[in-house]
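Continuing the batch. This is chain 6 of the set; chains 1 through 5 are on the previous pages. Same settings as before, nothing changed between runs. Recording input and output for traceability.
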Amino acid sequence: MREAVLVESGRKMESEGGSISNGNLITTLPTSRLERLLRKRVLRSDRGYRDDDFFEGNTSVKHPTDGCEKLDARVPKQRLLVVANRLPVSAIRKSEDSWGLEINVGGLVSALLGINEFEARWIGWAGVNVPDEVGQRSLTKALAEKRCIPVFLDEEIVHQYYNGYCNNILWPLFHYLGLPQEDRLATTRSFQSQFAAYKEANQMFADVVNEHYREGDVVWCHDYHLMFLPKCLKDYNNKMKVGWFLHTPFPSSEIHRTLPSRSELLRSVLAADLVGFHTYDYARHFVSACTRILGLEGTPDGVEDHGKLTRVAAFPIGIDSERFIRALELPKVKGHIKDLKERFAGRKVMLGVDRLDMIKGIPQKILAFEKFLEENPIWCDKVVLVQIAVPTRTDVPEYQKLSSQVHEIVGRINGRFGTLTAVPIHHLDRSLDFPALCALYAVTDVALVTSLRDGMNLVSYEFVACQALKKGVLILSEFAGAAQSLGAGAILVNPWNVTEVAASIGYALTMPADEREKRHQHNFTHVTTHTSQEWAETFVSELNDTVVEAQQRIRQNPPLLPKEDAAERYMRSSNRLVILGFNATITEPVDTEGRGIDQFKEMEPKLHPGIKEPLKRLCDDPMTTIIVLSGSDRNTLDENFGGYNLWLAAEHGMFLRRTTGDWMTTMPENVNMDWVDSVKVHFIK
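Output for chain 6:
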């Protein structure tokens, strides 16, 4: 039974009796978010699934839910449209109208494999340029069998949108690497042209979503590639349920404010109903950016903009832990484990698994290992560091330079501490297949994650899931999002402090067995209970709840003024009182042209030019009395309304006058103000 079905489809049944009858089953509807989440967790605790269910279109997987299967069969599943930059499959063209597809199982894909309570569809770029209609039709048909829908982007859009704005601007900024100089952008493209391509690509994604959207669908947008997408979707259909999740860090407002398109991106994301991040820190940074850059109000629930609340929350992602645990029982993995144990017999194994990227801290990791060997020469032939560095963006000069730097450091250390029969570092410039990776995790004594900045880092989760027998130690960078989840069981380090990391390596290698056991058990419990499936289902459930709560808030808002009725009553009356606000009501707009808040113009509000003539006619009507109520001071109101026949109330009603008379105070004369002097001294300090 789905919580979304209970909230949405069950509303009518709830109003009629508060329960849903299904044979002998009477299910009371949960009334709060906490009750709904706890109920969902119980209902799905025993279910099973197969990895290929998602891609093979199997939406009829049955699982024990205490008799609720019959109700599930009666109520159609809610559709989930997952929108990401890349589809979870790689497409290879075999002929003009024939394609080969290969599934790429990553963190997000794994998270969605086990969701059986939603009918999921994946929308994204196929990763290939398909300019001809025949190819597009044939690829669309092939992908449909995998429940995927392609977005076709041409090479120029991909170059400026993906390689340009996403990878050259947003990615470095969100990882605290700063913005590139204008003259160093890819192919000397400007910020403006790359941002224009970014918006165009997002609109192309939105067009595909709109084409396949059905009423009641949930649209889940992913990552920094699609920050403009929520606004595009809401412009198309304001009732569409839209969530957006960021898989990278969100930087502090001081970093984000350097982005030329900072305000437009923030407002576009705020169009979503629910905005999610891996950690509370990232969510707090986002709310702070909206407050300081846009001048909006941050609340414990999110960001409020003129009565509309965008909920902002933390949803730490996990992994499919059962997949790794089951893999350790496979004959192929057991064979790899046996070979590795023989290969590294008599030596402790340390492991690093990273993409070759500036944010992963690979040079810092290797330098810390070198310092450890310098200070502990007895360990030179007793420990080995296996570093897997998966190449990425090999055509970018900065990445080529990083690769050369890592190779140079590894060669120096192996030449300095190695022997004819053994070297301290085994460095691989490639990825490993799943069985080999699981085996390597299983034989590792110490995993070393030294990210300089990382959204989450799921390598740490995968290592813990494969350590049921070995109970190895995890050394984890405090700058990885995983530190907030696994920090209690790991050894947290500052990767920039080489001495600290070296000391932590020594402590991890000699840690007592009972302490290793306790640390591992803490992390293992977290990894196996906070899974990727739990993450995805919680986010979608929260999105459904957020939309329902937003609808309830709208019902509580005062109704819109019935203009025609008000005008008719006004014309029939003979004695009228009109009370007008001033600031942001009848003032001229502060046009900053995307430059943020203009505090100088806000300090000197001016009456809107279009209001002056209608206001004068109202003031000259003997049957109408006008009062302007404002928080502004008396001088400001005098400057704007000196020529009108009306009443002015300054400083929220503290001072009052008719424009033909003098100012008078509304404060009673007998009020004791002796306390003012005792308080004033604190403000002077």
